[in-house]
Design a protein that fits this description.
- By secondary structure, this protein is of the alpha/beta class.
- It has one domain (4-67).
- Helices cover 27% and strands 19% of the residues.
- It is built from three helices and three strands.
- Helix 1 links the parallel strand 1 and strand 2 (29-33).
């Protein structure tokens, strides 16, 4: 079984996030709390291996989406 990786670029590691944790509580999902990204390059690096990205206003630019896996 391959885990789906959900990266949250707006939440610090260790943040409680009860709603997100409840919604994503499944054996095939890994929630990664990356913390805020300040540049598009940081966003692209943070979500490089993600299946899903959650954000909170980080710079998800056209360049970031162009680098995302299809």
């Amino acid at each position: 079984m391959n885990k789906k990786i959900v990266v949250h670029t707006g939440a610090q590691p260790g943040a409680p996030l009860p709603e997100e944790r409840e919604a994503l509580n499944a054996p095939d999902i890994e929630l990664v709390l990356r913390g805020p990204c300040k540049t598009p390059a940081e966003v692209a690096a943070a979500v490089r291996d993600a299946d899903v990205a959650l954000c909170y206003g980080e710079p998800y630019t056209r360049e970031v989406f162009a680098q995302a896996p299809a």
